[in-house]
Amino acid sequence: MAQRVGIIGFGQTYHRSHRDDVNGVELINEAVRAALEDAGLTIDDIDAVVIGNMDHFEAVNYVDTWSVDGSGAWMKPLIKLTTGGTTGSTLGIAGYHHAASGLFDVVLVIGWEKNSESDTTGAIITCSDPIFDRFSFSGALPGLAVEASAYIKRYGIKEEDAARVAVRDRAHGANNPYAQLQTPVTIEEVMQSPMLSWPIKLLDICPRSDGAAAVIFAGERKARQLCSQPAWVHYTAVRHSHTYFGDVDYTRLHTLEAAVQELYHHMGIKEPLKELDVVELYQPYSFAGLKWIEAMGLCKPGESPRLIWDGVTDMGGELPFNPSGGVICTNCIGATGLLRIGEAALQVMDRAIGRQVPDVNLALATGFGGAYWSDLMLLGKKPW
Questions:
Q1: Secondary structure class of 151 (helix, strand, coil)
Q2: What residue numbers bound the domain in which 213 lies?
Q3: Which of 147, 155, 272, 291 is most buried, taking the most CB atoms under 10 A from its CB?
């Protein structure tokens, strides 16, 4: 029988550019132990496990089998999922549906990545069509640069506007002890950082991180029994609409637009800027922090710089974005979307120590990846 679902535990590793102190199994186990401790559970309380990462980036497959000593999935139902950059959010949505189905009461979801042992650019180059895509999408960075330049041309956005987004998230990341990058930066430092692929500079882009995250979902009866304040799942939406990079309209993020429109319609949200309390946006570079909040319907196209410069999305603003520092501060790809879900859950549960937004009732987490795919999960303080 279908059941309502809440998040009752969240754990993450300390994210760094290199975690040479652990192997993959140990990195996964670090997050699992943290999540179990957060929920006050043991591995015996877990009914099923969902795990994933960008396995083709590492050229090491079957994480569901070789990581069992770390995940604790021995003799438990286990599934591996991977959907490119959206892997983390896909994992979270799958964990929710596993519990909502009524087949399982308590589901452990694990995302992880050791980017220090992978070749992200090489993987993306080889997955892009050699004739139609590779000339412009030779890795993540050139593709994002195409999007940013198209956006600048359409709306006259300035590079300083994007720099302000990076400044915001780096300031927030300074409050997160788990973040890889915890040093604030200034507009001038962003603008003077090395140019990577115009208009993207070094401090505009996310790092490559080693890290893992684990989130525990529970059906309503167990959630109420095990947690005084679960973060209840209100809605999920998925838009994996494109196959080829060349099919994408780089002036808009159609997948995010469609996903949020579905969510807003279902939830009766008319004014998201006022009705949402916090957003953890999967935002791998600064220009996305402008264009994608427009896709979320928070303002008209081309008007996002005003919100950013006015501090609307800062801590203390009307709708804080990325209190954790977001992807600009930490990017362990297979875990990145799951981190957004876990950090949003902490906000709803009033347990985001050092980075808590006051009075959070609704928190939105997003995922991003592939040919500009988008996933969403809305969490609330009360069951829906």
A1: helix
A2: 5-118+209-231
A3: 291
Structure tokens at 331: 């990017």
**Low-confidence residues of the chain, pLDDT below 70?**
1, 135-138
Question: Residue 218 falls within a domain, yes or no?
Answer: yes
Same-domain status, 194 and 218:
no
Determine the Cα–Cα distance for residues 22 and 130; give it in Å rounded to an integer: 36
Q: Which residues contact 92 (CB under 8 A, 6 or more apart)?
A: 109, 215, 337, 338, 341, 365, 367, 377
Give exposure, 13-25, as e/b (b: 16+ Cβ within 10 Å). Answer: bebbeebeebebb
Compute the distance between CA of residue 91 and CA of residue 71 in angstroms, rounded to an integer. 14
> What is the C-alpha to C-alpha distance for residues 89 and 337, in angstroms, rounded to an integer?
4
Q: Which two tokens stand for residue 211?
A: 């890290």
φ/ψ region of 350 (left if φ > 0, alpha if ψ in -120 to 50, else beta) reads: left
In the chain, where does DSSP find H-type helix?
24-39, 55-58, 63-66, 68-71, 87-100, 120-127, 140-155, 159-173, 187-192, 220-226, 254-267, 272-275, 288-295, 304-309, 326-329, 333-348
| 156-215 pLDDT tens trace | 999 999 999 999 999 999 999 999 999 999 999 999 999 999 999 999 999 999 999 999
The answer to the question of residue 126 being in a domain is: no
Whether 197 and 305 share a structural domain: yes
Q: For residues 339, 343, 349 and 354, what is the CA-based torsion angle, rounded to 10 degrees?
A: 140
Same domain for 30 and 154: no
pTM given for the model: 0.97
Phi/psi class of residue 233: alpha, beta or left (left: φ > 0; alpha: ψ in -120 to 50)? beta
